[in-house]
Amino acid sequence: MLRREKKGFTLIELLVVIAIIAILAAILFPVFSRARENARKTACLSNLKQIGNALMMYVQDWDEKYPPAFLWDPNYASTGTFISWFPALYPYVKNQKVFECPSTNGEKYGETFGFWWWIPPEWRGTIRHSYGMNCYVGSDGPTSWCSIWKGGRSMAGIPHPADIVAVAECAHLFVHNYWGCTPAPECGRFQVGYAQICGAWCWPPNRDERYTRHMGGSVICFADGHAKWVQADYHRGLPRGVIIDPDLEHLERPSP
Length: 256
Fold this sequence. Notes:
The chain is an alpha+beta fold. It has one domain (20-251). Helix content is 27%, strand content 15%. It has three helices and eleven strands. The chain has helices spanning 11-61, 86-93, 185-193; strands at residues 70-73, 81-84, 112-113, 117-118, 131-134, 165-169, 174-175, 178-179, 182-183, 217-222, 227-231. The strands form three sheets. The protein has a five-stranded mixed sheet with strand order 7-5-6-10-11. A hairpin with a 2-residue loop joins strand 8 and strand 9. Helix 1 (11-61) packs across helix 2. It starts with 10 loop residues before the first helix and ends in a 25-residue tail after the last strand.
């Protein structure tokens, strides 16, 4: 009687199969990761398109003036406080999640932001910080901390609205070009271009793709309501033609 031999994999064959699987995983995982980030970028772009539509509706309702970046409200809380820009747009979008980028590493909004800005009770702990409003658009006057709470700028007062940043992915609640009352034109550019970290404007090593939100760039909503993805620029934060504050363009200087 013939004995049937049992067949199986040899150690070499198993090692070859494992090696092939490892190589395929190494090839495919970055592809899957990039596809996932593309989906997040698309979701973020949708958010800022909705914010752009909300801005245009707000402008039509408020005598062609943009919402203030933040506003002093003496009736809010017992001592009065600042109200930031995004609750002003909420009635036009009806969805808090529109104000949250799926790729943000920001913390959820608490009762206060920084030293001054209070978050309304219904917003506390609900969404992660994702977007900032350009203080040039959200102020009726020089975009310094000294005059920012006077209200939003008029639509007619903004030159080239298709180039001016209105709301963008940002490492701060606001996109600004001032510290105190001192112009710092590079500041707002790096807040937007490298939206995952606030210190990119003063610390060049932070100007790295890993500190951008979406594959080397960020999504921006412009003052005319349209939104698009733009690539971060090491020396400027944003590519030329994307403007934070036209009043300070003449002060632009090469960053270290």
